[in-house]
Amino acid sequence: MRNKHRVERGKDFLRSLCFLCPSFFGVCLFFIVPFGVVIHYALTDSSTADAAFVGLDNFKKLMTNAAFRLAAKNTLTFSALAVPLSVLLAIALAVMLESRIPLKSAFRSFFLSPMMVPVASIVLIWQVLFNFNGSANVLLSLFGAKAIDWLNSDYAQMVVILLFLWKNLGYNMILFMAGLHNIPKDLLEYADVEGASEWFKFRAIKLRYLSPTILFVTILSLINSFKIFREVYLLAGNYPYEGLYTLQHFMNNMFNALDYQKLSAAAIVMALVMIVLIALLFVIENWFGKDVEG
Amino acid sequence: MKRKKKKYFSRGVMFLLCAIFAILFLAPTVLTITNSFMTESEINSNYGMIFSTTTGGYVSEHVNLKFIPDKVSIQQYITGLVRSPEYLMKFWNSVILTVPIVFLQVAVASVAAYSFTRWRGKIRSGIFFFYVILMLMPYQVTLVPNYLVAQRLGILNTRWSIILPGMFAPFSVFLLTKYMRRIPYALIEAAKIDGAGEWQIFTRVCLPQCRASLCSIAILVFIDYWNMVEQPLVLLNDADMQPLSVYLSTINSGEIGLAFAMATVYMFPSLLIFLAGEAYLMEGITHSGSIKG
Question: Is residue A234 part of a domain?
Fold first, then answer.
């Protein structure tokens, strides 16, 4: 009897393998196996067969590389600004749409619509707005302020963050709306009966229940903020102002130079940083939302 | 009484805020579309000082951002779509890269998701966890392995170097698994008792149950790849194969009106999908909302 059960389970396992096969084969071929090669390249001194093992030399070289440091600094600064902003603003939008106002679903569609507009289609308007002779400066001059060369100064990152927020807020907002929807209604009613203020309800109830969503949106925004190259490239090309030089610019240059050692080391460093950041976020969320986890 | 008044007031403020945000969110898209209907001379006089056009004519001193064209014309579209076929070709490049990825990725993912749903065990949950990690990796990390494989397989500089990795991207596997796990187990059990094989259960029970989620995932995948820039820049050297997204940024400054028109053409398919499938999209986003569980 027990044996039969085991045979049945073995069959199940084989069948499941069949279904998983195409996907797993592809993932192995395009991600796992080559990642082994990436690790190999990162630890050796050339991409040929007689490469010598050099330990962490490539990583040391990478860390002292000025271009990589600039790119890493820019990307991290960008993430540090854009991620919290996109979480906070998305929560604000979701809360706004939660109140009883007319045209709610229309607003929701409007806020979501930028997500469907390819960045390439919208950069023209951004150029018109933030060119030295552009609308933003015309507006500034109305107030008597001095014109700013937006894309070639330290304001450049702000312009890109604006584009990032414009594009991603809608998606995050929908996630938060779903999160708000899942908060037990009786808890809020109970708070009402007790005479709790709106702010207290938001802080003590809603925010606690939103914490898994906040975690997810933070991770999502973090990943998206690493993709900011797209916006920068379309706005300012391959050689942007220093403050806009992103990790992807660095990678592209390394691809052009066929420098596999630096490429591999950089990929590994980024993977590790990402894993550490995400693990950290999970730990924080677990601590913050532990008593409401259902 | 007082409390009620206060409530109406705060609702009014909320509405106003929403309206302001709505304008901010809509304006860039609307501006691009309306500007694409301007004549070359109007574009010139409005934006000449920015894009330093050489065609001459009147150029206003400051940029003149306008919602409504003085004279509606489809001149730019005729130039872009009829007279110079390269735009249509680039548009076609975008289509031929994106559409196969959408269909293949959803197909591969639905089979894999079925596997993750039907059978559970330590090995499979380990693999699933790995998929999640892979999904969370920034593009820069996966691009290097993809490049190396493409090089080894000799598909670098061909469309396959983008389509094949796209086909196996773990994102839709993750999302579809989450959907499929919510199909009542009794349904599958019933089919099994009726003598259906696994393949039959998959195609006749499982897939029809998650038709809506297949749509929403297809939409999400479509947006992602329609918007792609990094992959073609690294994996396709040949300028003739670049999608319109990359090509748009290279339209030279003398043809800014044309650029507006082509930008509108490029956003047209995704806006159309948005109008048709907004409900699916909303579903899809909502359910992507948690990595745990």
Answer: yes
Task: Give all strands (DSSP E) within B122-254, no chain letters.
Answer: none
pLDDT tens-digit series, residues B190-223: 998 898 888 899 999 899 988 888 999 999 999 9
For residues A232 and A75, give the distance between their C-alpha atoms in angstroms, rounded to a whole number. Answer: 11
Give the model's pLDDT for residue A212: 86
Q: Structurally, how many domains does chain A consist of?
A: 2
- Same domain for A134 and A33: no
* Same domain assignment for residues A209 and A101: yes
The answer as to whether A266 is a domain residue is yes
The domain of B171 spans 93-243+268-287
User: For A123-181, what is each residue's pLDDT tens digit?
Assistant: 989 988 888 888 888 888 888 888 888 888 889 999 999 999 999 999 999 999 999 99
User: Are residues A109 and B278, on separate chains, in Cβ contact within 8 Å?
Assistant: yes
Kindly list the residues from chain A whose CB atom is less than 8 angstroms away from the CB atom of residue B144: 34, 38, 251, 263-264, 266-267
Neighbours of B12 (CB within 10 A): 11
Q: Which of B139, B270, B282 sits opposite A116 (nearest CB)?
A: B270
- Position of tokens 């130079």? A257
Residue A108's pLDDT band (cuts 50, 70, 90) = very high
Domain span including residue A222: 59-292
Contact: B112, A13; criterion CB under 8 Å: no
**pLDDT tier at A284 (50, 70, 90 boundaries)?**
confident
pLDDT band at B252 (very low <50, low <70, confident <90, very high): low
Nearest CA in chain A to B136: A223
H runs (alpha helix) in B181-243:
185-193, 198-200, 207-209, 211-226, 230-235
In a domain? residue A270: yes
Of the partner residues B24, B168, B259, the one whose CB lies closest to the CB of residue A26: B168
Contact list, A123 vs chain B (CB under 8 Å):
248-249
Q: What is the largest CA-CA distance in chain A?
A: 88
Q: A165 to chain B: nearest residue by CA?
A: B25
**3-state SS assignment for residue B249:** coil
- Number of structural domains (chain B) is 1
Q: Which member of A24, A118, A264 has the closest CB to residue B245?
A: A118
Interval B137-177: pLDDT, tens: 888 899 999 999 999 999 999 999 999 999 999 989 998 99
The gap between the terminal CA atoms of chain B, to the nearest Å, is: 46
Nearest to A133 among B11, B49, B245 (CB): B49
Question: How does DSSP classify residue A245?
Answer: -
Q: Looking at the domain assignment, is residue B70 inside a domain?
A: no
Q: How far is Cα of residue B264 from the mean position of the Cα atoms in its chain?
A: 15
Q: What is the mean pLDDT of the segment spanning A285-292?
A: 72
* Cβ count within 10 A of residue A205: 18
pTM of the model: 0.90
Higher pLDDT, B109 or A294: B109
Min Cα distance A133 → chain B (Å) is 6
Query: Is the residue at A158 inside a domain?
Result: yes
Which residue does chain B place closest to A270, by CA atoms? B141
